[in-house]
Amino acid sequence: MLARNSWFIPSHIAGKDNVMADYFSRHTVAQHEYGLIEGVFRKVVQHFFFPQFDLFASPELHVAKRWASFCWWKEAESGDAFLMKRWPQRSWIFPPLPLLNQVVTKLSTQGHLEFILVAPVPTYGAPMWMPILKGMINHEPLLLGRVEEVCRLSTGKKPKIPGDLAAFCRSRSSSRH
């Protein structure tokens, strides 16, 4: 940034104003193994399409027969979604939320990939990945509700995570709902 004669000025945002970021700064990626409850998942796929590949899954939580993970599982078709050169068409992407910036960056290199991405709805300011994601989707985001109400952990319990989620989609059907 110095070469462009630009400067960043860091500032503190109180946790109460940035609840989701505050939560994720205190927890590890391993604590993010959760998925949508069945009724909410059905709502998403009826609205958009049924995914053929699940990119950030586990043996307990995957929505397609073919899946990859964010860590190595012998049951996965691919051990690490980030090591895949091309992500499959009609991918379901519900990554551990701390990985969203990396996920959106990877999506931007995938050409016209059809995908459904489940991500938080920002409550304070837009995260760096949001404008990039909005430039890729061709459907209005589908609001899903509060994380603790629409998700379940691999244990079946509800995660205690603040904030709301939405499903973002790009598909061959370019109509916006």
CATH fold category name: Rossmann fold
Shape: globular
Q: Tell me the total number of β-strands.
A: 8
In the predicted model, the low-confidence regions spanning at least 5 consecutive residues are none
Question: Judging by the overall fold, what is the CATH architecture?
Answer: 3-Layer(aba) Sandwich
* Rg: 16 Å
Order of helices and strands: HEHEEEHEHEHEE
Strand content bin: 15-25%
Cα(first) to Cα(last) distance is 40 Å
- Please summarize the sheet with the most strands: 6 strands, mixed
Query: In the CATH hierarchy, what is the class?
Result: Alpha Beta
How many helices? 5
Number of domains: 1
Helix share bin:
10-25%
Strand order of the largest sheet: 3-2-4-5-8-6
How does this structure look, described?
This protein is α/β, with parallel strands linked by helices and 177 residues long. It has a single domain (34-170), classed as 3-Layer(aba) Sandwich (Rossmann fold), CATH 3.40.50. Helices cover 21% and strands 18% of the residues. The chain is built from five helices and eight strands, in the order αβαβββαβαβαββ. It has helices at residues 19-25, 38-47, 100-107, 129-136, 147-150, and strands at residues 34-36, 53-54, 66-67, 91-93, 115-120, 142-146, 151-153, 164-170. Strands 3-2-4-5-8-6 form a six-stranded mixed sheet, sandwiched between helices. It has a two-stranded antiparallel sheet with strand order 1-7. Strand 4, helix 3 and strand 5 (115-120) form a beta-alpha-beta unit. Helix 3 runs parallel beside helix 4. The chain is globular and about 50 Å long. 28% of the residues are buried.
